[in-house]
Design brief:
CATH superfamily of the largest domain: Periplasmic binding protein-like II
Radius of gyration: 24 Å
Distance between the termini: 33 Å
CATH architecture of the largest domain: 3-Layer(aba) Sandwich
Shape: elongated
Structural class: alpha/beta
Largest sheet: 9 strands, mixed
Number of strands: 13
Mean pLDDT: 84
CATH class of the largest domain: Alpha Beta
Low-confidence stretches: 306-317
Number of domains: 3
Order of helices and strands: HHHEEHEHEHEEEEHEHEHEEHE
CATH topology of the largest domain: D-Maltodextrin-Binding Protein, domain 2
């Protein structure tokens, strides 16, 4: 098996056509077909099923394509790192939960593009479970996600212990503190039970002998905020995604006491992939931008301590 064969199967799988893949790679269709047959004989599996519309990867084919994609990306990144001549180049893909991406992704990408214009960035947004899955599949290089317990295939470093607030429409009592027990009287708008934040809230409520019974469930962050702005209920969120609404007086944020409610935000990567120079620089900028938002009071929480000269702590399990 060589890199030429790996590029072949990736192109064929993407285009679902041996003819189109041959045109893209500027080789004869017969030569490309021969490469596939040789690889199938070597591995003793069938990689593609032929049909009237073209070809489709088999289960073994999908598995090899996924692995080949990661290997080829690592090779391209190695070339970029070695031949960059002092200018950072390459690709960085990263994922974030919606509550983080809606506020952090814009300024983060803008700042990184100013510093490293030759690096191509790709951002995806999804709940922490999806971000973790994308990391393990090798479709992203870095992930910002919530929680402290992850598989041993993932290395992480802490970013922030984030405070959560009860968010209401303005009117009546302003900001201030509230107990978890007091939310039993609230009309709550919360994400569904599969959502990480909802799991945390249900667990804390159970410890208090309570059961949360929201009047509405919405996994979409903008929908949650809109329903609160309409006065249909209250929700529980970090300050970050509603900061402007609170600052303008449209919404109020109430800190929890006895107990406080926090969750841990981490930056993660998988252990089986070498992190590129571009991804390392991006990871440092993530920490810097989070610190900036905390310093401005937009993100309530306790920042993870940097080590000497502001560098990020080493990756750890």
């Amino acid at each position: 098996m060589d890199f030429r064969q790996l590029r072949t199967i990736v192109n064929v799988a993407e285009l679902k056509s041996i003819r189109l893949a041959a045109d893209r790679m500027n080789i004869a269709q017969s030569a490309l077909s021969r490469q596939i047959r040789t690889l199938e004989e070597e591995l003793q599996v069938r990689l593609f099923d032929r049909n009237g519309r073209g070809v489709e990867p088999t289960a073994d084919g999908h598995a090899l394509v996924a692995r080949a994609t990661v290997i080829l990306r690592e090779m391209e990144q190695a070339r970029a790192d070695i031949g960059r001549g002092g200018v950072l180049r390459g690709d960085v893909s990263f994922g974030m939960p919606p509550t983080v991406a809606d506020v952090l992704a814009g300024p983060l990408i803008e700042r990184f593009m100013q510093l490293h214009p030759q690096v191509k960035l790709r951002v995806v947004s999804g709940y922490s479970g999806y971000v973790l899955d994308w990391l393990q599949r090798g479709t992203i290089d870095l992930g910002v996600l919530y929680g402290a317990r992850h598989p041993t295939t993932v290395r992480s470093r802490p970013l922030l212990v984030e405070e959560l607030f009860l968010i209401r429409r303005a009117g009546g009592s302003g900001g201030g503190q509230i107990s978890l027990a007091a939310i039993a009287a609230e009309r709550l708008i919360l994400p569904g039970r599969q959502h990480g934040l909802r799991l945390l809230l249900d667990e804390l409520a159970a410890k208090e002998g309570m059961e949360l019974d929201p009047v509405a469930e919405a996994d979409s962050l903008p929908v949650q905020i809109d329903l609160v702005r309409r006065g249909l209920g209250a929700t529980i969120l970090p300050l970050l995604p509603v900061f402007r609404h609170v600052e303008s007086g449209e919404l109020t944020a109430h800190a929890f006491v006895s107990p406080g409610i926090t969750r841990r935000l981490i930056l993660a990567r998988t252990v089986d992939r070498q992190i590129s120079s571009a991804a390392q620089q991006f990871a440092r900028l993530v920490r810097s931008e989070v610190a900036s938002l905390v310093a401005k009071g937009r993100w309530a929480g306790t920042l993870a301590e940097p080590d000497v000269e502001g560098e990020m702590p080493e990756w750890h399990i």
